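Reminder to self: tokens first, then the designed residues, so the page reads top to bottom the way the pipeline ran.
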């Protein structure tokens, strides 16, 4: 091995060792705040991680571990009502979670954190950035739309999809237990490449409060954030999936066009699509997602974290 190759090899070994040491030594503690449970891991630049519908905060655990070598402090959120967490009574679930998370940032004195959200969590993150544009340094939105109601019909409006959304909410809350269980299992098919992960999603769905689930779905279907995206002044990275829908005719190009249309009013948004990952990109294409996030966060270092 020549001296240059040996030097590169040793640097790689040192970097790998640093990652392992950082991941193993990161201390975690759980904070309870206004019906939220937040696991705080590591020290450094604050990154708030919000899971999606029916999901546990565990969704983000591997991503958090991978970022420890970059001096990141993860704040992994568990939303109430999902994956066995106690439900909270609220007329507007998404708005109330937005307000709780913004209050958490202020209470914990997090200096302009990065906010990462998956699916429903991404929708909440968008609402946070719309409500308080100066509170967040960077946004990472993972496979989430600004208006779910327009996915099937681009001409749909929040008002036009209400009857369908109301019927969906009523059906979900009134179904017998077995029918609901089968619905949960069908809903998560194709959300991950790994069947073990899909089984976990079924367990989380069955452990979630169905009223909370139905209400959150209703709000995502009937809330159109597209006209408000122009209020967001936060640099935003959107990471999307398409491969799960290839059998239905979707391509990377057609899916990119959907995301571009949904986020057309968000100035400077950067859109990147995974080559093969399904909806849970942090599980299916972890290195790609971690590299995307790491580069995006590093590009904003010094802007306030």
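Designed residues (305 positions):
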């Amino acid at each position: 091995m020549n001296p240059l190759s040996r030097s590169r090899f040793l640097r790689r070994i040192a970097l790998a060792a640093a990652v392992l040491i950082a991941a193993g030594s990161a201390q975690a503690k759980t904070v309870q705040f206004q019906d939220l449970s937040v696991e705080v891991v590591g020290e450094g630049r604050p990154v708030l991680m919000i899971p999606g519908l029916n999901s546990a905060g565990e969704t983000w655990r591997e991503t958090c571990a991978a970022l420890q070598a970059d001096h990141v402090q993860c704040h992994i959120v568990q939303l109430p009502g999902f994956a066995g967490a106690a439900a909270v009574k609220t007329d507007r679930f998404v708005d109330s979670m937005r307000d709780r998370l913004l209050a958490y940032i202020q209470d914990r004195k997090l200096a302009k954190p990065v906010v990462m959200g998956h699916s429903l969590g991404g929708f909440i993150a968008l609402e946070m950035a719309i409500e308080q544009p100066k509170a967040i340094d960077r946004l990472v939105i993972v496979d989430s739309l600004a208006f779910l109601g327009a996915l099937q019909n681009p001409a749909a409006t929040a008002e036009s999809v209400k009857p369908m959304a109301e019927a969906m909410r009523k059906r979900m809350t009134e179904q017998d237990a077995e029918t609901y269980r089968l619905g949960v299992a069908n809903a998560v098919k194709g959300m991950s490449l790994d069947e073990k992960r899909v089984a976990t999603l079924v367990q989380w769905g069955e452990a979630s409060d169905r009223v909370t689930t139905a209400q959150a779905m209703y709000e995502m279907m009937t809330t159109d954030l597209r006209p408000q995206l122009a209020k967001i002044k936060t640099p935003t990275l959107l990471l999307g999936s398409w491969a799960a829908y290839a059998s239905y005719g979707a391509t990377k190009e057609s899916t990119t066009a959907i995301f571009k249309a949904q986020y057309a009013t968000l100035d400077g948004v950067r859109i990147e699509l995974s080559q093969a990952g399904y909806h849970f990109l942090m599980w299916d294409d972890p290195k790609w997602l971690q590299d995307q996030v790491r580069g995006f966060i590093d590009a904003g270092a010094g802007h306030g974290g």
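The chain is about 45% helix and 15% strand.
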